[in-house]
Design goal:
The two termini are about 20 Å apart. About 45% of the residues are buried. With about 300 residues, the chain is of the alpha/beta class. Strands 4-1-7-8-9-10-11-12 form an 8-stranded mixed beta sheet, with helices on both faces. Strands 3-2-5-6 form a 4-stranded mixed beta sheet. Strand 11 and strand 12 form a beta hairpin. The protein is built from 11 helices and 12 strands.
Length: about 300
Amino acid sequence: MKKSLDVYLYGMTVLSTIHRLKGSYPEADSYQEIESTRIVPGGETGNAAILLARLGLHVRPEGPLLGTETRETILWFNRKWGVDSSRLKFDSRFEGWKDIVLVDGKHRNVFGWFAKRFSKEGGKKWSKPDAGEIRKAKVVSIDPYFGKESERAAGLCHKAGKPFVTLDCAPESDCHRYSAVNVISQEFIKRVFPRANAKKLMSRYLSHSKGLTLFTFGTQPIWYARPGKPTRKFKPYQVKVSGTLGAGDSFRAGMVYGLWRGWNDEECVRFSAGLAACVCRKFPVAQYPPTLPEVFRLTGQRA
């Protein structure tokens, strides 16, 4: 394994039980057949780590504690794809971070215990970000979900002069303020800013960061902009979709990869959209992460 660290990822890794439905998601008080079930790693950081390792980077995730019901499977997949699991800690008194996902090809519904795990009663089932690991890495990825610890990770990156990519965080947060890239999803906008005008919301984000801010809208054009510059748009690639689960995680992973490569904004967005499209063509991410040539064939980019 390479001694240098390309990417340090501080964020969510879960063990997902994914039920693929035979038909469309059913209405209440009805029935639908389950076609297949997969138990695989997931989460924003879990998926990104596998994708980036598959693209040839040395990646080291940290964050949620591994538990008695999650450690074996997560570590097995990480070994398979070359993810460095040396910073993932184990708690023998904890079953682990898990979720249940129902997918029908075009949609996915996630069921979990996250509110319970993030409550004071649940205790902190995650480790603190490591300043030494951040200093070692060329690029950092931060999920905002661990409250003060995520904000601390952003502060450590700022202090060390390390660029980082984050997602779905408030415009006034340190995670956004210090970020090199922040990817805001349509789901987050609808949940947190349900009545906001998208143009005004973009202006609000741009006023609080010197980095690149992106809004993603599923199959609709991606918006991306920097302070003092006009908002640009990029139309996602149209592919035959096997499943959309992990598309957002893969888009952000693509931005991490582009930042690591030193690409300009347009190159990063093109590659990220291509990586997300390739992920949508195969299901699930942990079993079929796309290769670099596969993404380049879709985007028309060169190594």
